């Protein structure tokens, strides 16, 4: 018998409740998204709203993932802050604008994590950080904050550092959309030639 999409979404079980003594822990899964090159076209240190062009297919991917019960979590290296090209305030302005545009598409970002540090940054930003991908710091913070089942989660990124960070954090499925001519990653489970191919990860809604 064919199952309706609604029933399929219920069967996909977006959350898992674990009982540990008297404590109830609600676990969930996440779609981790790199930002530049996945949500928006990577124009290089993009920080002005007028320069943001959304990637084709990203709204459908986010909407479907959300309907399938995935938290939507952005993990983005923002060394442009550390290098002095723009400020944390600029980043928050862009992200607020981006969240508004996503909301118009019935998409809610659960959280964005960013890493402003870089070894060649300036002032307080000049340092190594495990948050900077390929470090797993941002993903592990999200894991703790949202009780994420990493093995049941997905990372969608465009650079080897995204795949390695996800691997270090124990993310079960790692999808890569490399830029033309750029390297792939041995940590990627699947290489995409177009972002829309990621919709296959959410078959009840594709
Ligand atoms: Mg990127």
Short synopsis of the structure:
The chain has six helices and seven strands; from the N terminus they run H-E-E-H-E-H-H-E-H-E-H-E-E. By secondary structure, it is α/β, with parallel strands linked by helices. The relative contact order is 0.17.
Write the layout of secondary structure elements.
Layout: H1 5-11, E1 15-20, E2 23-33, H2 58-67, E3 70-77, H3 79-82, H4 88-104, E4 111-115, H5 137-146, E5 154-157, H6 160-169, E6 173-176, E7 190-191
Parallel strand pairs: 2-3, 2-5, 3-4, 5-6, 6-7
Antiparallel strand pairs: 1-2
Residues 34, 36-38, 42, 158-159 line the site of magnesium ion (MG).
* CATH second-level architecture: 3-Layer(aba) Sandwich
Residue windows where pLDDT falls under 50 for at least 5 positions: 1-13
Q: What series of H and E elements makes up the topology? A: HEEHEHHEHEHEE
What small molecules accompany the polymer chains? magnesium ion
- The coarse silhouette is globular
| Amount of beta strand | 15-25%
Query: Can you tell me the CATH superfamily?
Result: HAD superfamily/HAD-like
Biggest sheet statistics: 7 strands, mixed
**Quaternary state of the chains:** single chain
**Total beta-strand segments:** 7
CATH class: Alpha Beta
**Cα-based radius of gyration, to the nearest Å:** 17 Å
Number of helices: 6
Assign a percent range to the helix content: 25-40%
Work out the count of structural domains: 1
Mean pLDDT: 91
């Amino acid at each position: 018998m064919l199952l309706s999409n609604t029933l399929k979404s219920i069967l996909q079980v977006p959350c898992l409740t674990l009982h540990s003594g008297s404590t109830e822990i609600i676990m969930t899964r996440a779609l981790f998204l790199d930002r530049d090159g996945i949500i928006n076209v990577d124009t290089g240190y993009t920080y002005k709203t007028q320069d943001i062009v959304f990637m084709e297919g990203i709204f459908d991917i986010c909407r479907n993932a959300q309907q399938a019960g995935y938290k939507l979590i952005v993990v983005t290296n923002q060394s442009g802050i550390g290098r002095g090209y723009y400020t944390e305030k600029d980043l928050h302005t862009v992200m607020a604008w981006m969240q508004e545009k996503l909301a118009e598409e019935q998409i809610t970002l659960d959280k964005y994590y960013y890493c402003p540090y870089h070894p060649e940054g300036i002032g307080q930003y000049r340092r190594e950080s495990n948050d900077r991908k390929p470090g797993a710091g941002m993903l592990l913070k999200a894991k703790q904050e949202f009780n994420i089942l990493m093995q049941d989660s997905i990372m969608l990124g465009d650079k080897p550092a995204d795949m390695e960070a996800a691997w270090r954090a124990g993310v079960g499925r790692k999808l890569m959309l490399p830029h033309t001519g750029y390297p792939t990653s041995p940590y990627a489970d699947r290489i995409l030639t177009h972002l829309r191919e990621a919709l296959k990860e959410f078959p009840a809604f594709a």
